[in-house]
Amino acid sequence: MIRAVDGVSLTIDRGEFVALLGQSGSGKSTLLNLLAGLDRPTSGSVVVQGRDLAKMSSEELAGYRRNDVGMVFQAFHLIPSMTITDNVELPMRFAEVDRAERAQRVRQALERVGLGHRLEHRPAELSGGEQQRVSIARALVNRPSLLLADEPTGNLDSHTGEDILNLVRDLSLSLGMTVVMVTHERALAERYAQRLVFLADGKVTSVTRANPRQELAENFESTTRTNPEAGVAGTEEARA
Amino acid sequence: MKGYDMLELAVRNLRQSKLRNGLTTVGISVGVASLVAMLSLGVGLQQLATRRLAGSGMFDTVFVTSKQDFRGMDRGSDEKDEHPEKAPFLDEAARNKMAHLQYVTEVEPEIRVMGEILYGGQTHFGFVTGLPMSARENEAFDNLQGKFFSRSDADEVILLNDFAKELEPKDPKSLIGKEVTLRYGEHQPLAADAENSGRMGDAADQGSASSNGDDYGFSVVRKTQQLKVVGIVDEEPYGGMRTVSRGRIFLPVDLTEKLNMAQFGDMRSPLRGSGKTFMTLTVRVKDPAKVAQVQDAIKQMGFRTFSVLDATKGLRRFFTVLDLFLGIFGSLALAVATLAIINTLVMAVLERRREIGVMKAIGASDSDVKRLFFAEAGAMGFFGGVLGIALGFAIGKAINLGTGIYLHNHQLPAEPVWILPPWLIGAAIAFSILVSLLAGLYPASRAARLDPVQTLKYE
How many CB atoms lie within 10 A of CB A1? Predict the structure, then answer.
């Protein structure tokens, strides 16, 4: 048995921006999938807002992913055959949001990520940065409290990557959303995350406080402090 | 996910691989078309047979006789008539009773008397037959020249074509609209009875008129009646049942009764002193399916009945077997189409692994994914069904056209052998959807079982 994540004990505050760092195979993506409810721990628990994901049925986990989690991927994972609008609308179909409200929320989400045009284009017709913005809009549209990003800048050039992370941080602050981001780019993580969690061989090796740009943090200090209770807490062991 | 969203997504997905899904849908439609073509051929043949038989006027008819007459006729039958001498007479009262049974439309006596038509200074002998108004539906009147009787007691006559040729060899049709004179024998009560009743009574009075003493009997008096020729037919209606002699002169049945024509069977009345009785009564039933019921009711009254019901039973069994056979044959193509659906959807699951993983990651449940593939299968089934109906319709039209040309070449009237009833349209589409859903079971559960982590792992 290979333990992808083993003996990890980690608590994440509500509204916090945490980066998970480590080499490939360190278990950072598995930890993210555990938080997303895509993977289940063989033992231990993943408690999000007081609910233990390890004890949920697959139907309940789907509901959790639908309503509480937004996911952003390195490869964007937009559905190529759908237009931008349809892609962003898709999570609301699963959440059974009313048709009339959906159109409005799609527009809002796309405006939030700075995309107000080319809405009827297919993902392939957009640049990488634009595609990632669409995928962030898709992650936001069901108003989750937790945004999980798996190497969101991995397929982008450094300038675009910074734009995307600025956007993620702004959203986190303005919407009070907890962000957990997997990355292997330490420099970027230090600039945007409030806390860096280093993993190796499925174990947490160190946790450091980073110094995100002070001026922004101060602006939104009140937001981040409104919920001092633990937003995400977990102890996991998982097989890969 | 809501049903409407599901269908919308399913149709959108189907349109992504137009060629592949289109071909599969065409495959389903060929299956549905063959099924529909076969089954509606069965329906058409059945209706054709039923129509032919109904046209012969035998399948909605019960022939009633008294057990007093034709004794010993029931040899070989299961029911023995223990005391035929006690059986009731087939008289006016019995006729009225039968006419009031449920589902009975008409009770008519069989009237068949000798008569002569006087026309152009010549006399022409022929059997006179009384026809009820319902005879209009008989297939013999499909090729009626002129018109049918205007009323059931009109002074009108329809002639058999052969007889009309005898009257007017060059142009039998010219008889239509002309007046002819019928000479016949009238049944008159004895003079004593006539005095008693004051007037030579009509049929209904006969029974009571001759009920006193031993002086039973009647006179046959030569009479004439002016009639207008309204039509000419090629065949005698209900002629299939006739063994004695063909009728050639047809009068409305109520007119024949009003004229009180003397019949062969009248001979029996003075012998047994029973008043007027009928040799046979023909009971017509509203619906061939009710014949058995009516027949039983009449048997209860103590009469002997005959219908060709047993023949229809055998016929119905034959068509059930034929339909089954045609259905199985037609289903083969649909079974092949089912494999095509499974193949197409399994391919789609493989191709859309990533997409399925993404949907699950953003909140689709396993059952959402399963239902989405079900919806795709069902949509293919629906479109295949609709297309198949259209195709089957075209095939059926071709069959009808082909048989029509064949029949025409053999100097027979064209008749549709292929009929698509509305229930079959609905049933075929429903069946197509059902079969497609069954075919979607495996691919859909396979899609639902996909592990999102695995599908999203590699780029």
Answer: 5
Closest CA to B371 of B384, B356, B386: B356
Place of tokens 């016949």: B184
A123-128: long-range contacts, CB 8 A cutoff, minimum separation 24: A123/A76, A123/A78, A123/A79, A123/A80, A123/A82, A123/A84, A123/A87, A124/A80, A126/A84, A127/A160, A128/A76, A128/A155, A128/A156, A128/A157, A128/A160
In whole angstroms, how large is the CA radius of gyration of chain B?
A: 34
Best to test chain A binding among B4, B360, B362, B370 (most A CBs inside 10 Å) = B362
Residue A238, pLDDT score: 47
Residue B157: which of B195, B127, B202 has the closest Cα?
B127
Angle at B413 between CA B412 and CA B418, to 5 degrees: 110
Phi, psi for residue B152 in degrees, rounded to 5: -75, -10
Q: What share of chain A is helix, strand, coil (3-state, %, to 5)?
A: 40, 25, 30
Work out the number of other CB atoms within 10 angstroms of the CB of residue B288. 18
Candidate CATH numbers 3.40.50.1970, 3.50.50.60, 3.40.50.720, 3.40.50.300; the one for domain A1-56+149-240:
3.40.50.300
Instruction: Give the residue carrying structure tokens 């103590």.
Output: B302
Name the H helices within chain A.
28-36, 58-67, 84-94, 99-112, 128-140, 158-175, 186-192, 214-219, 221-225
ipTM rounded to 2 decimals:
0.87
Mean pLDDT by 10 residues, chain B (459 residues): 88 89 93 89 82 71 77 51 70 85 84 86 87 78 84 88 86 88 84 49 44 63 89 76 67 86 75 72 81 86 79 76 87 88 92 93 94 93 94 89 87 80 91 94 94 80
Tell me which residue has tokens 């009140």.
A222
Residues of B in contact with A94 (CB under 8 A): 1, 359, 362-365, 368
Q: Which two tokens stand for residue B238?
A: 């209900």
Query: In the beta sheet, which residues pair with residue B123?
Result: B118
Number of C-beta neighbours around residue A141 at 10 A: 25
Per CB-CB distance under 8 Å, the chain A contacts of B376 are none
First-to-last alpha carbon distance for chain A, in angstroms, is: 8
Neighbour count for residue A37 (Cβ, 10 Å): 26
pLDDT at A237: 52
Q: What are phi and psi of A156, to 5 degrees?
A: -120, 155
Q: Which residue of A has its CA nearest to B363?
A: A66
* Per-residue pLDDT reduced to its tens digit, B374-418: 999 999 999 999 999 999 989 888 988 888 888 888 887 777 788
Contact present, A78 and A138 (Cβ < 8 Å): yes
DSSP states of B294-312 as a string?
A: HHHHHHHTT-EEE-SHHHH
Residue B224 CB neighbours (<10 A): 12
Structure tokens given for B263 = 């019949």
What are the residue boundaries of the structural domains of chain A, listed by start?
A: 1-56+149-240, 69-143
The verdict on A28 touching B (C-beta cutoff 8 Å) is no
Chain B nearest C-alpha distance from A215 (Å): 33
CB contact (8 A) between residue B358 and residue A33: no
Dist. CA B1–CA A232, nearest whole Å:
28
Compute the nearest-CA separation of B381 from chain A (Å): 23
Residue type, B31: G
The b-or-e profile of B395-408 (16+ CB within 10 A means b, else e) is bbeebbeebbeeee
| Residues of chain A contacting B459 with CB distance shorter than 8 Å | 74-75
Cβ of A93 within 8 Å of Cβ of B5? The answer is yes
Do residue B359 and residue A59 have CB atoms under 8 angstroms apart? Answer: no
Give yes or no for A102 touching B (CB within 8 A). Answer: no
Q: Where are the alpha helices (DSSP H) in B2-76?
A: 3-16, 18-55
Closest chain B residue to A81 measured between Cα atoms? B16
